[in-house]
Amino acid sequence: MDEYEAASVRPNDMPLPVQNYVMIEREEPPSYLKEHTIRSWLLTTDHKRIGLLYLFSIIVFFAIAATAAAIMRLNLLTPRGDLVQAETYNKLFTTHGVLMVWFFLIPSIPSVLGNFVLPLMLGARDLAFPKLNLLSWYIFILGGAIALYALLVGGVDTGWTFYTPYSSTYSNSHVALMAAGVFINGFSSILTGLNFIVTTHKLRAPGMTWMRLRLFVWSMYATSLILVLATPVLAMTLTLMALERIWHVGVFDPALGGDPLLFQHLFWFYSHPAVYIMILPGMGVVSELVCAFSKKRVFGYMFVAFASLAIALLGFLVWGHHMFVSSQSVFAGMIFSFLSFAVAVPSAIKIFNWTATLYRGSISLDTPMLYAIGFIGLFTVGGMTGLFLATLGVDVHFHDTYFVIAHFHYIMVGGMVMAFMGGLHFWWPKISGRLYPEFLGKMTAIVTFIGFNLTFFPQFILGYLGMPRRYHAYPEQFQVYNDLSTAGASILGLGYLLPLCYLIWSCRYGKRAANNPWGVKGFEWETTSPPPVHNFEQPPVQTEEVYNYPPPGNEAVAD
Amino acid sequence: MSRVLLAEIQFFPDQASKMAVRVDTLLIWLILLTGFVTFAIAVVVIYFLAKYRKRAAADRSPPKTENLAVEVTWSVIPFVIFLGMFGWGAKIYFKESIDPKNAMEVHVIGKQWMWKLEHLQGKREINELHVPLGQTVKLMMTSQDVIHSFFMPAFRIKQDVLPGRYTTEWFKATKLGSYRIFCAQYCGTNHALMTGQVIVMTPTDFAAWLKTGRETVSVAQRGEQLFHSFGCSGCHAAQAAVRAPLLEGIYGSQVPLADGRIVHADERYLRDCILIPNTQIVAGFEPVMPSFQGRISEDDLFAIITYLMSIGSSPPEANIPNR
Ligand code: HEM
Ligand SMILES: [Cu+2]
């Protein structure tokens, strides 16, 4: 029995190993994980603990949403859709979409990793409004509880897009309840965004000018702007839909004198910016990872930073590209198509800059870096196929087919979830104070990459062949591709299960992490792993440019 | 066995119109271009990863980390390429949106979960659309309930079908055969069953097919009967007691409204006049027309409008009130 197992009951009470080089004579302040009571978790205002509360909650939502997806994929093994009934299938994809978008992906990087590392990166003791931060978690849980209740009492069959008049008049499921859950959840987003914006403005360490901000902070800032500006539109839209559903106030249903397209305009006015909420944070993480594992300053700092802002702002102007065949005017279609191409430019800039950052770096391919490379590849494919969809004549064919499904999964799962996993591994030593098993980590990253491509690449072909999305059954010629996709999904599932196991394992049995296990720049690596309650013993001061790595030297470096 | 399986695997969708060829040509260029760029990025990334991996000796003298010229280059070049994609795609879209000349019109009504179609000769079908080869076909579509979308992959076209308004799409088949119709917009429980077939026939076969089945009157004739039975002709006739606009020649004319607007009298205008007449009062007339909302089916509405279109020959002056 080694010393870690012996200490497994309360691992954090154990003195840090002596080889930890920041351990000078002084006593370490107690780690933020030290207190163990339920109360100390549920009433905490520590941004690090709140980040973990979010982590636990989104894992639950992810698990439910992933189970729904697994059942859908099994159902699609056969053309007739033998496993579940159409009604059930429709509820499954709605559950999957709603939970994945609002209860997993939107809070994933911002509320978990952002909460944990943003104040550390800024050299702050906490977010600007710690109590508000806790409140936003409770709101999130309340919204989530209502959404789950809606599922338990029978579910919803509208799809995550809630298109009217189906949702407002025709659907016989618990639409209003689900909308209430999403509506409430929105306030959590708004509060988190607000907190991040104020924190970035007000709590930067001395010497940290805007041009010395970490790129992750820039991306969180851009994301927060969207959260604050776009989410209220979603709230209004869902409210109008619920009003029509419950009291027959005619807004969207033509039978009541409304206009069904109005809903789509309002919905996408929120949801297109929201898709950027689901990628900008990932881009921020990848910027960090690429610098950290090349030991180099990012190429074109200003361009990468401002590209985030450009994406956030331009993202508000392209909602109509979801409506090219909705009967919006040809002229509107053209404008939205043009602007969609414009918004792709900053994304392209980022990819080129990351690639250039690798040049003459000193690159180590640890697990987080593997995820980052995976991100770059998959995001590129997702972005390129986004261009196909922005191309008017082509989108007429692709719209509402599996091509669209593949496109956004390449970006949201291949991009954002990869980045989330990369970031989680990268900061895991800081979060838990332990190292995860590196070899398993690398294998998992590779398994995820393979499983992902096998799941979603066939869907591009399916879409081109004409298979519409949201189909519970399909013509026989589509079967091969559907079966490939289902096979891939099982591999992908493994890629998500493994980290869950070995990360939990590492909390007890992992090696203790040094303060800066990756040997990288950044305030979060200057404090202990895990950090003390107030993050830093002495408030840090930024005296140099950001990512100011010393020249790596020409020689080979042994591990 | 395995040969059978391979034969069943489809790599390309059917290509049954010029439009499909047009879309595919653009698509192939897009695939080549983006494929090449993606491949190039992958090659560069992998090359860097290998060359500059920590354990390899390499020239690591610090490069510049800011370079405006480089940034501008790799922003402007993609943008210019994007403009090309935009223009090409927009051209196709524009072509699809132009109202085709000499088209054979077919009425389509979407409802949960079937397609009801009617040819102008009065022939009706469900979930099937028979069309002659080489003839432009224009679908005039509406929905009885939620939003649907009429999608024909073999022709690369799709158009949402909305309640409360008409939308159109057109295609011209260049290949005999039968092709799939899908509802592409999620519309409820049996969305996946709202499918059908387009059957492209030779013009002679089509003419023969039109004559099969029950004897039918044309849609316009049926519309005329409805025009009387719904009581429209009670007011909209020269000898009527109530003063209402005469409808000969109305279709396609410019109609001055009481609020000063001048509107183009298309299908949508006519539809709205029948269902929500008070929103567009013709200049010089009293708002006395009752609404037919809820009293008239989409079917019959199509017929009446078709009838009004068929009497669109006489001069539009008939509508200008003489004071
Ligand atoms: C490179 C820039 C991008 C372009 C040009 C682009 C373009 C498009 C277009 C035109 C559509 C509509 C397709 C259709 O419904 O017919 C679409 C759908 C979608 N895109 Fe993108 N996209 C881009 C990046 C992203 C990003 C970054 C995300 C999210 C992280 C994203 C997520 C989505 C989602 C969720 C949908 C479909 C929503 C639905 O119908 O359920 N896209 N994209
Ligand atoms: Cu969008």
Write up what this structure looks like.
Chain A has 17 helices and no strands. Chain A is mainly alpha-helical and 559 residues long. Chain A has one domain: Cytochrome C Oxidase, Chain A (Up-down Bundle), CATH 1.20.210. In chain A, helix 4 crosses helix 15 and helix 8 (215-247) packs antiparallel against helix 9 (260-277). Chain B has two domains: 12-39 and 69-216, Immunoglobulin-like (Sandwich); 219-319, Cytochrome Bc1 Complex, Chain D, domain 2 (Orthogonal Bundle). Helix content of chain B is 35%, strand content 20%. Chain B contains seven helices and twelve strands. Chain B has a five-stranded mixed β-sheet with strand order 3-2-1-5-8, covered by helices on one side. In chain B, strands 4-10-9-6-7 form a five-stranded mixed β-sheet. In chain B, strands 11-12 form a two-stranded antiparallel ribbon. In chain B, strand 11 and strand 12 (262-264) form a beta hairpin. The longest helix of chain B has 34 residues, at 18-51. Classes of the chains: A mainly alpha (559), B alpha+beta (323). The complex binds protoporphyrin IX containing FE and copper (II) ion (CU). The site of protoporphyrin IX containing FE has 23 residues of chain A, from helix 9, helix 12, helix 13, helix 14 and helix 15.
Query: Could you tell me how far the N terminus lies from the C terminus of chain B, measured between alpha carbons in angstroms?
Result: 83 Å
CATH class descriptor of chain A: Mainly Alpha
Q: N-to-C SSE series of chain B?
A: HHHEEEEEEEEEEHHEEHH
- The CATH architecture designation of the largest domain in chain B is Sandwich
What's the CATH architecture name of chain A? Up-down Bundle
Work out the radius of gyration of chain B: 28 Å
Assign the CATH topology of the largest domain in chain B: Immunoglobulin-like
Instruction: Give the ligands present.
Output: protoporphyrin IX containing FE, copper (II) ion
The helix/strand class of chain A is mainly alpha
Average predicted local confidence, pLDDT of chain A: 92
Name the poorly predicted regions of chain A: 1-25
Which homologous superfamily in CATH is the superfamily of chain A? Cytochrome c oxidase-like, subunit I domain
Order of helices and strands of chain A: HHHHHHHHHHHHHHHHH
Shape of chain A: globular
How many β-strand stretches of chain B? Answer: 12
Biggest interface found: A-B, 102 and 89 residues
